[in-house]
User: What shape does this take?
Amino acid sequence: MKNFSCSCGQTLFFENTRCLNCDKPVGFDAGSRQMYPTHQDVQDASRVPGVLCRNASDFGVCNWFVSDQDSDFCLSCTLNHTIPNLLVPDRRRWWKSLEQAKRRLIYSLLSLQLPVVSKGDARDGLAFKFIEDQRTNPLVREEFVSTGHNDGLITINIAEADHVRREQSREYTGELYRTLLGHFRHEAGHYYFDRLVKNSGALEAFRALFGDERKDYSGALQDYYSNRTSAQKDPDLISHYAQAHPLEDWAEVWSHYLHMVDTLETAATYGMQQG
Assistant: This one.
């Protein structure tokens, strides 16, 4: 990801809420994909995108400007379907990590000029559900919550925002690229398969490259998890999990592609060149 600059010349990073040199409060504008000072810090307010998201002022978990003046929330936060219960200890900290990862995903999607529309505004839109199960909170109804995607709704088990628990899961599953942002990228791949491939003329080309997505999905995943420790990785696939099902192969490739694009943008920001 690229860096940004304050009007004083100081480098700004994507998560900054203030300039570390001049102490100006700053925010990110999704429309221009740039950082700007907030309203109260400039004389000419017309040069500023607007007001900060309500989740910035109320909870300190966001640093984006509101894109729609009829909304109190930024583009990223309008995609929220369910947020964690903030009355439970650590949940605000977990939520902040989830929002940071989500904003990095949305930044990448916007940079690639992909459609990012809330499910509240369109039936084929996107939404995020951040919930937990009884393994981390015995008082909730859900016994087990899987991170996944269904018809535009991406569910993330908020325990993935806890570094220790995520590392334990990474070791158990053998998934080397198990990161919070990685989950968002992977599940977004499932969403954009539905948006860009499923009902398009590209479906046959998809099947030629990834396989037939009509293969029994539940059975394939059950077979994968039953044999994941003994099965050899297919050297032609980008990850071990990609061999579980053609749709998982697609989502893994999508996730790694976003990761590589982000890495290349970071390299370009710092002037790195191939030797």
